[in-house]
Structures are given as C-alpha cells and as structure tokens.
C-alpha cells in the first residue's frame, strides 16, 4: 500500500513539474532562454511579447512564431492559463491578418485540423480573400462554429465556398438547410453526397424540387442513406432508368421497402409508356376509369410526372366535383382546401401531402400533415366549411 501511494505521489509530482515547465516555457525564462521567438532564435521571447513578435519585419521570425504558438496551444487551456492563452490568441489574430501570404497559409494549414483552435482566429481565416487560406478552414476546421458558417453562407459566397462547407466532416441540419437555400447545384450535390450532413425532411423536399431541373443531383440523391420511400417515390417520377435501377438495387433498404420501390418503378415505367402514346388527359382518364385502375398509386404517379390536367380530371372524377372547381381549389394556395378535396375524393391522408405539394404548389412550411401519420388533420366540420367555401356540398 505504501509503495502504491508513493508511486501515485511521484506521478502527481512529475505532472506538476511538467505543467510548471510548460508555463515557464510559454512565458519565457531568462535563465534558460526558453520562450517564443526572436530574430535570432524561435525560443527566446516570453509569450507576453508574442503579439509584438507577430509584427516583426522578418517573415522567418513570424513563421517561427506560428509554429511555436501552434505547438504551445494544446497546453494552454483558457480556464487554466487565461492570461497566457490571451497572449497567444492576440498574436494568432495578428498573424491571421499578416500581409504575407505564406504566413497566413502556414497558420491555416496548422489550425485546420486543430479542434480547439481559437474561434476568433479561425473565423478570420475562414473569411480570407485567398482561397488557399480560407478553403482548408471552411472544409476541415471543426472549431469553426455554425453561427460563423451560417453568416458566411448568407453573404452570397463564391460557389467553391458553398462546396467546401457542404463537404465538412459534420454538417448540422441548419447549415445543410442554408447550403440548399443558396440554390447552388454543385454545392448541393456535395452536400447530398456527404453522409455526415444531416438533412431535415423539409430540406430533402427542397432538394427533390431542385433535382427536377438538375440531373446532376439525381444519382447522389438516389444514393443517400436516409432516402425514404416517399422521397424515392418522388424521384421515380422524373429520373432516368439508370437512376431507377439505383433505387431498385439499394441493398440498405429493408425487404418491404425494396418491394415497394420495385413496384413503384414498374408503375412509373408503365405510366411513361402511356405518356409516349400521346393520349390526351381525357383519353387517359377514360382508359384508367374503364379498367378500374384510377387508384391512389396512379394519382401519385401522375403527380410525380406533373401531369396536372390529368390529375385535375382524376380528382374531379373521384370527388364528383366539376373539374373547374377542382382547378380553383388547387390554385387557391390553401392547404386546408386541398386536404378537404383529397378527403372528398376518398384518397389516403398521406396522398394529400403530394396533392398539396405538387398539385397545389404549397410550400413545405405550410403543408398540413396527417394527424398521427394516418388520419386527416381536419375535423368533419372544418372539411365541410372548406368545401362549402367553393360551393361544394359534403
């Protein structure tokens, strides 16, 4: 027991000596000649004079200061060495604004992989006008917080800035949303391909809408690990056969999901074949109605292909509401009215989302979601009121 206590005491004493040595090393010790930098030696100046050395006219001295400060920073926790830490940060801030590119490049290269880099310093480097300085920080430095990233994205940055942020080791929901809001296609493609980028459902919906006009987004979106059946259903409405094959072959989907996607792709291909025959919307309606094939799945397919006239006729047929009133409801901008129309057509509550989003062009933030995921979100009285507003009786 005595030996164990003696060993622990010896270890603590050794750690204390190391800590005191580090502090002397950082502050500078005239007797031993340790410290930060001078024109003749990178080891001879107290840390309290680091900011002064950061303005030394000799570039080599400033470069030596960068190397020395970066080496010391891990041992200068703000809470334990507040004054020393402050000296170091003050010097680093000056170096981050150095007029010589090589100095700022050395600092950027050293701090990009340092998780505890001073936030004010990396924020300055992230905004450097030279891409070789700012890009490594934007792309790799985890010390750069979300507030800084959001501020940078809000300032209409160059496309490479957006791509650098989108490819970071971790991208939060808020930053992902901000990347997509820039409407930058290459940056959004990088974001989708980054499996460490977290995407809110509404952000995924926005990406799908972008993908309708930008084929470059199709493959990375089809490969996303968090693609749901609903997203796959929307994708299947406008991507080519190669991307449909990617969706069908996704091994990470469970068996029911894969079967659903295979069936979905089959229906979409059949719908595409009918579209190629140049049938009018009225002819299509007559064909599917006669075959008793005017199903919710068919409505989904038509919505995905943006067959608006056919969707209006199909909803009119199922709800017994004149087509002109259906068109009026879809164009009203009212999510409640469209939900009421879906109910009148006896369609599943989940399908009302597609009808709102695609048929009615309702924005994601204004969508009315099924209650509990399975029930219509309006009461019978609310539905009746919405329909009566358009002169339709329940």
Descriptive notes:
There is one protein chain. This protein has helices at residues 2-27, 50-53, 59-72, 82-95, 101-111, 119-126, 131-140, 146-153, 159-166, 173-181, 185-193, 201-211, 218-223, 229-235, 241-248, 255-276, 281-290, 296-304, 308-319, 323-330, 335-344, 349-359, 380-389. With 394 residues, the chain is mainly alpha-helical. The protein has four domains: 21-133, no CATH class; 145-226; 227-278, no CATH class; 279-394, no CATH class. α8 (146-153) packs parallel to α10 (173-181) and α17 crosses α19 (308-319).
Morphology call: elongated
Low-pLDDT stretches are 1-9, 11-15, 17-42
Overall helicity: 55-70%
Give the class from helix and strand content and strand pairing: mainly alpha
The amount of beta strand, in percent, is: under 5%
Features:
elongated, mainly alpha, single chain, 394 residues, 23 helices, 4 domains
Care to give the gist of this entry?
The chain is mainly α and 394 residues long. The chain has helices at 2-27, 50-53, 59-72, 82-95, 101-111, 119-126, 131-140, 146-153, 159-166, 173-181, 185-193, 201-211, 218-223, 229-235, 241-248, 255-276, 281-290, 296-304, 308-319, 323-330, 335-344, 349-359, 380-389. The protein contains 23 helices and no strands.
How would you summarize the topology of this molecule?
Layout: H1 2-27, H2 50-53, H3 59-72, H4 82-95, H5 101-111, H6 119-126, H7 131-140, H8 146-153, H9 159-166, H10 173-181, H11 185-193, H12 201-211, H13 218-223, H14 229-235, H15 241-248, H16 255-276, H17 281-290, H18 296-304, H19 308-319, H20 323-330, H21 335-344, H22 349-359, H23 380-389
